[in-house]
Amino acid sequence: MKSDLAYLLISKEKLRAKAKQLGEKISKDYEGKELVLIGTLKGAIVFYADLARNISIPLVMDFIAVTSYGGSTVTNGTVRILKDLDYDIEGKHVIIVEDIVDTGLTLSHLKETLMLRKPASIKICCCLDKPSRRRTNLKPDYCGFEIPDEFAVGYGMDYNEKYRNLPEVYVLKPEIYMYK
Ligand code: IMP
Ligand code: MG
Hints:
- The protein is an alpha/beta fold.
- It has helices at about 10-30, 45-50, 105-115, 175-180, and strands at about 5-10, 35-40, 60-65, 80-85, 95-100, 120-130, 140-145, 150-155, 170.
- The chain has a six-stranded mixed β-sheet with strand order 4-3-2-5-6-7, sandwiched between helices. It has a three-stranded antiparallel β-sheet with strand order 1-9-8.
- Helix 1 (about 10-30) packs across helix 2.
- The chain is globular, with a radius of gyration of 16 Å.
- The two termini are about 15 Å apart.
- Inosinic acid binds near residues 43, 101, 104, 151 and 153.
- Magnesium ion (MG) binds near residues 43, 44, 68, 98 and 99.
């Protein structure tokens, strides 16, 4: 697995510090509000777990699965819900927790879909952002790190379902995903 990785992009220490900083900010911003933290499966789970444990106000945890890359590295712009929320978000303040925002297509579609359920508000918190690849006007409200246009794996993020369990964020060697 290690031989597929080009270099370490974000260390454990930086990830830990960022989850703490974002969690504390969210705790202040949502003080006294009913917060639902929605994780996008499966990529966001590791970041979600770190973030949630740094939020000190009560919250509801829920998860949603949507199609995005499904094996390749290029999104086709269509998004489908594979696993819906368990919880009714009407009237609640929602934060969608995402591993990485790339073109922004997945999240803008997801946000529109969830808006139809009449939450009090919806914001986005992502661990990583690749702003140079954006194809929508979506801007995360809380963001861990802006990264260059490289393919990142680890800390929940995969290529073809591999590498999610790496504890830090690495850049995948281009030859791993370019010639398959
Ligand atoms: P978007 O719709 O193009 O913004 O795609 C977002 C989704 O694509 C993310 O939630 C990831 O699942 C996946 N993705 C985009 N870039 C990367 C990457 O560098 N590594 C791993 N997954 C990625
Ligand atoms: Mg994702």
